[in-house]
Specification:
Layout: E1 2-5, H1 6-12, E2 16-18, H2 26-35, H3 39-47, E3 49-56, E4 59-64, E5 69-71, E6 84-86, H4 92-107, E7 113-121, E8 124-135, E9 141-142, E10 158-159, H5 161-173, E11 181-183
Parallel strand pairs: 1-7
Antiparallel strand pairs: 1-11, 2-6, 3-4, 4-5, 7-8, 9-10
Helix pairs in contact: 2-3
Length: 209
């Protein structure tokens, strides 16, 4: 299985914005003035968002068009030339699927692909890598209906397998090591159909919306 950093996928797909070509809206300009930000960057964040969740303490938490709730809508200036930012791939699952098909053709064997990015977590310090796009992998492990060592039936445990694998891969790729791809071995038992979309909780089941 291959875990591929979102940044290199965005670059390959042309999901890069030149800030000099961005005209900030009045809202973006006002926020930028109040918080010492680049109005053009704020405008890109707004454009990549379908909902602003929180604007406070110099931080923008938004919901992207994909349904991801994260800081700055995933817009990032790291590891790109000055004056540019990357945005998230338009369809991370499609990106993962294209990579999966190409790698299977190249190597002549079954492979899975995760497109990963770094997200913060509510109520927890530090950030972790999560799966944005998935192909060839079951992203969730459902333990509901199984029993524990004391015979108790599990009723709610569903493990975000793809997120766990993406997070583990970041230990190898790191943020500035110029290693945008990690190979994960030993994951064949979880091969199968799946998407990153399956990891996004439906709003009707979200207690915080």
């Amino acid at each position: 299985m291959f875990v591929v950093a979102q940044k290199i996928v965005s670059k390959a797909e042309g999901a890069i914005v030149r800030l000099d070509e961005v005209a900030p809206s009045p809202m973006a300009s006002q926020w930028a003035i109040e918080h010492g930000k680049d109005a053009r960057l704020v405008e890109v964040i707004f454009r990549e968002s379908r909902r602003v969740v929180r604007m406070d303490r110099d931080i923008l938490i938004t919901e992207t068009r994909h349904g991801f709730v994260c800081a700055n809508a995933g817009v990032d200036a790291s590891n790109v030339p000055p004056g540019f930012v990357t945005v998230l791939p338009a369809d991370p699952d499609a990106s993962a699927e294209r990579l999966c098909v190409a790698l299977r053709t190249r190597f002549g064997c079954a492979v899975a692909v995760i497109v990963s990015d770094t997200f913060g977590r509510p109520w927890r310090e530090g950030v972790v890598n999560v799966a944005l796009g998935v192909a060839g992998l079951q992203p969730l492990l459902d333990y509901r209906g199984t029993v524990d060592s004391f015979g108790r039936r599990l009723t709610s445990t569903v493990i975000a397998l793809a997120d766990e694998l993406a997070s583990a891969a970041e230990i190898v790729t790191r943020k500035a090591a110029r290693t945008p791809v990690a190979i994960v071995r030993g994951a064949a038992e979880w091969a199968g159909p799946g998407t990153g979309r399956m990891l996004v909780r439906d709003a009707q089941r979200d207690l915080f919306r």
